[in-house]
Amino acid sequence: MTERQKYLFDLQGFVVVEDVLSYDECDMAIEKIKAKMQPMQKTPDGYDANGTWYNAGNLLEDGQPFTKLIDHPGLYEVLSEIINPMLRLESAYSFVRFKGCPPFEIHGGHRGGRVNFRYYVHNSQINTGLTVVAFALQDITEADGGFACIPGSHKSDFAVPPEDREELFAVGGPLVRNIAMPKGSATLFTETLAHGAASWQQDEPRYGLFYKYNDRAAIYHDQNHRRPSQKAFDMMTEEQKCYFNTAWQAFGPEGRHRNDVPEFDGMDTGE
Ligand SMILES: O=C(O)CCC(=O)C(=O)O
C-alpha cells in the first residue's frame, strides 16, 4: 500500500485503485453477468424494484476475470494492510441497476460497530473490518450516480441521530458525494463508512461487481450458502481456496493449525 493510498483511505474511508482490470476483462465480466442476472422484486431497502434492479451470484463459477480478482496483487497490497494479511472473501456478486432505479440508501457511518464495523489507527497501522471492493466495469462520472458515500464518516464516534437521518443521509443531500470511477478501477471502502448508491442515470445499466473481504478470523455474512461450488474451486489456486475457509485464527486441526490450508473443495450451492 503506498503512502498516498494510506493517506486517502484514512482521510476518506475509501480509495480508488486504477487499472485492476483491462477493458477486455471488464467487457467479458459484463457479458458473463448479463448471462446470469435475475430480476429482483425488492431492493435491499424494500422498495419495489420495478425491473430496475437485478442480481447475479455464483460468478466464480464463470472463471476469469472473476477468479483472478480473489487475490489480485494490487488489491491484496491494500486489503492485507488495512484488514489483515490472512483474508476471507465473504461474498462476490453483482447488482445490475437500470436508469432511474431506486437508490441504495446510505448505511453504516460510525466506528462503534465492534469487530466487523470498526476503524482505528495505531502506530501508523490502519485497522478495519468488513471491506468492500467495488469494481467499475464501465466509466462512471459523478453525474451518473452509483456508489455514494459521506467521506470521512468511518471515523465518526457517533451514529447519525434517528431524527436527522433522512436529511443528513439523503442521497443527493448536503453530506453525500457520488464517487467517479474509471473503467477497470476498483474502489475499496470500509463498511464502517456511511455509503450506498445514488439512482443510476446512464442509459447503459450499471454492472456493479462487489467482493467483500474480512479478516480470516472474523465473519459477517453466513458462509454456508455463499461457499463456491466445486466448479468454481476447480479454477482456483490453493491460496485462493483458503479465502473461503471458515473463520478462525489458530489452534485448528492437525495440518491446518493456522488456517492457511484449504478447508473446502466445493459444495453444491443448489443454484
Ligand atoms: O451499490 C453500491 O455501489 C453500494 C454497495 C453497498 O452499499 C454495499 O456493498 O454495502
Characterise the protein shown here.
By secondary structure, the chain is α+β, with helices and mostly antiparallel strands. It has a single domain (3-244), classed as Jelly Rolls. The chain is built from six helices and 13 strands. The chain has helices at residues 3-12, 23-36, 73-82, 162-168, 230-233, 238-241; strands spanning 14-17, 38-39, 53-56, 87-97, 104-107, 119-122, 125-128, 131-135, 146-149, 177-178, 186-190, 195-198, 206-215. A seven-stranded antiparallel beta sheet has the order 1-11-8-13-4-3-2. The longest helix is centred in the N-terminal third of the chain and has 14 residues, at 23-36. The model has no long low-confidence stretch (mean pLDDT 95). 2-oxoglutaric acid binds at residues 95, 104, 132, 134, 146-147, 195-197, 208, 210. The site of 2-oxoglutaric acid has 11 residues, from strand 8, strand 9, strand 12 and strand 13.
Task: Summarize the SSE layout with pairings.
Elements: H1 3-12, E1 14-17, H2 23-36, E2 38-39, E3 53-56, H3 73-82, E4 87-97, E5 104-107, E6 119-122, E7 125-128, E8 131-135, E9 146-149, H4 162-168, E10 177-178, E11 186-190, E12 195-198, E13 206-215, H5 230-233, H6 238-241
Antiparallel strand pairs: 1-11, 2-3, 3-4, 4-13, 5-12, 6-7, 8-11, 8-13, 9-10, 9-12
Residues 95, 104, 132, 134, 146-147, 195-197, 208, 210 line the site of 2-oxoglutaric acid (AKG).
Key words describing this protein structure:
7-stranded antiparallel β-sheet; 13 strands; single chain; alpha+beta; binds 2-oxoglutaric acid; 23% strand; 4-stranded antiparallel β-sheet; Jelly Rolls; 271 residues; 6 helices; 18% helix
